[in-house]
Sequence to fold (400 residues):
Amino acid sequence: MKVVELYILRRTLGIFTATLFWVLAIVWTTQILTRINVVTGNGQSAATFFEIAWLVLPAVIPVVIPFAVGIAVAQTLTTMNTDSELIVISAAGSPRMTVMRPILLLAVGACIISFTVNNFIEPYSRERLRVLVSEARAELITTVIQEGTFQEIEDGLHMQIGERLPDGRFGGIFVSDRREEGTELLYYAKSGATLELNGEHLLVMQDGVVHRKTGDGVSVVQYTSYALDLSQFAASGAGPTLLPKDRTLGYLMNPDRDDPIFKKSPQGFRAELHKRFTEWLYPLVFALIALAVAGDSRSFREARIHPLLTTMTIALVFRWAGFFAADKVWNVPAFTPMVYGVPIVACAVAIFFIATNRVMELPMSIVERATTLWNRLQQRIVALKIRLSGFRRTAPGGSA
Fold:
């Protein structure tokens, strides 16, 4: 590889790494916050939270990589054009492949990483994540039975334990059950205890009453002993339910015909397989679009939208089309060609612009409208500053 190519690769790789880190950190944080209730709501330890956080990471990486590639390529080429480096490279007689080769090398590497993570790492992390959530659900039986707690076991079912007695039993038990529409059950008990019988977890309440409220009225039943089955709120012994996106590539290609999820929605497995075969292409799509937009040497004084904004706008259109096709194919198999067609067409269009030495740009009408809106926004900001300045001078206690 030539010195110039190494220079371009090093600059692009540096921006790609920095962009990937910060964008990944933001997206990763939002994904973790959506799952923090697994820890706070079920009494899990900090170790479980950090394990869940790491297991979420592989699902985020394939989504972020294409955007990091597009930003890195567009920003590198734009900076080189502004510094007249692209003009010097062209004037020296270097072919366009001198600029394109390191960019394509980075894009191919990103595609390989995306394919590996999406098909060989993410399925195992998703499976382990579901196991952790399932175990947290099962441990809720023991964590919820704590002194002085009032916690929601599931929608419509709440439980509170007043105190823990010296003999290990519980005192002051209250259970509210509103899961059945139109019926409300309130359980009160002076004491109770948990036990396991034939693999089922039970809460045995003693010396209490049950208030049953329906549309016909309220009935009160007093009891000396009542057992509430808690096993129905825990994960079954068969393990967590694995969806198509949690399965490995080999399983998607040859699924178990007795899999209840497969029986219910076989098209979902085929849709996920098509998605796995195309998701890894998008880093190359973003890189080619960036080359088509910012790969030429042009005067930076020429009026046009910033190449980075143009690159991301065009790339997002194709990426959204890919998301749309992948979502639709779950229910409509006719959208399957579109799943493959979007990245292929995007690559073909970008290659056409590159091969014919044309610049891929947004339509001039959009450019003019964006410029007009930006000028109006600047004028309003200036006018607002003037008004605020005048308000401060005329306000009581001001300098005027």
